[in-house]
Specification:
By secondary structure, the protein is mainly α. 72% of the residues lie in helices and 0% in strands. The chain has one domain. It contains 4 helices and no strands. Helix 2 runs antiparallel to helix 4.
Length: 107
């Protein structure tokens, strides 16, 4: 049952990152890119990209956790939790590459 709470929390946070944070014209609780000082809208691009990746990841996590709970396969929930950290690291790498390409393309 804890996986559902974790999934709902991350889904809400990713919705915030994707839809609210880029419209605020600031980087309040969003993704902090090391490239923030290189260009004016880096925070917007990085929040939008990381928000999309987090939204997809949390939706998949919530769907898989719900399916395993419905099927009674609670022993597989720990296996699902092992993929959270690698997915976050992959999301950070993809966001930085996207932001780097976007900054270079705009110059």
């Amino acid at each position: 049952m804890g996986n559902l709470y974790i999934g709902i929390f991350f889904l809400c946070f990713s919705l915030f990152l994707r839809f609210y944070s880029p419209k605020e014209r600031g980087n309040m609780l969003g993704y902090k890119s090391p490239q923030l000082r290189t260009r004016r809208r880096v925070w917007f691009w990085s929040n939008r990209c990381f928000g999309n990746l987090a939204l997809a990841g949390s939706a998949v996590y919530l769907t898989v956790s719900t399916a395993f709970l419905a099927a009674g396969k609670t022993e597989w929930l720990d296996e699902v939790n092992r993929y959270i950290i690698p997915y976050l690291l992959l999301s950070i790498v993809v966001t930085e590459i996207y932001t780097f390409i976007r900054v270079r393309r705009k110059e």
